[in-house]
Amino acid sequence: MKKTLIIGASGQIGKMTTKQLLADGKTVIALVRDKSKLADISCDKLHIVEGDLENDFSQAFADCDQVIFSAGSGGKTGDDKTMLIDLWAACKAVDYAKLANVSHFVMVSSIGADDPSQGTEIMKPYMVAKHMADEHLIGSGLNYTIFRPGLLTDNNATGKVKTIRPSNKEDMTINREDVASVLTYTVGKSELGGKIFELFNGEKTLADILN
């Protein structure tokens, strides 16, 4: 039975993705620090694993075919947590996935991770962390897909996206629920391996644009 491990399953995008995959009949391993944060989800295809990303969480990878890394330190933490979660934990997840012979690793990165030098001073540590985590995944030998969403919003999903960066900075946004839909769509599609996509609100369906 194919299983998808979601790292950061209690976060906003991670939880949305978990719900969508379960609704599609997929088996999900949800890695969280506190399982009570998923208490509102009841499904026999959901298996919750408690673990701390700052420590060893390799046990969550057992029998998993695919991995989605959607964890993040959050905007209210300092640079120390950014390094520990967005960089170090992401790199450890890649290493664990390789040891577990995972067939597809999906990374939720960020716009700007391609060139952190272009970011603002306050955002550079975050961009550097995302950049280095992405590079570690690219060089790992794993079959990977990296998504770099724009500024995240809480608007309702539209089901439409684009992967070409808008020229207007105000348009470089995407709804969290649409990011989750992209992650859900990617599960089971190994042909998306080796690709990096930026994500923004757009006009095309996922099937039209993710190929």
Write up this protein:
The protein has 5 helices and 11 strands, in the order E-H-E-E-E-H-E-H-E-E-E-E-H-E-E-H. The protein has 211 residues and is α/β, with parallel strands linked by helices. It has one domain (3-209): 3-Layer(aba) Sandwich (Rossmann fold). It has a 9-stranded mixed β-sheet, with helices on both faces. Strands 7-9 form a two-stranded parallel sheet. Helix 1 (12-23) crosses helix 4. The longest helix is centred in the middle third of the chain and has 21 residues, at 79-99. The radius of gyration is 16 Å and the shape is globular. The model has no long low-confidence stretch (mean pLDDT 94). This is NAD-dependent epimerase/dehydratase. InterPro entries: NAD(P)-bd_dom, NAD(P)-bd_dom_sf. Residues 8-185 form the NAD(P)-binding domain. It comes from Psychromonas ingrahamii (strain DSM 17664 / CCUG 51855 / 37).
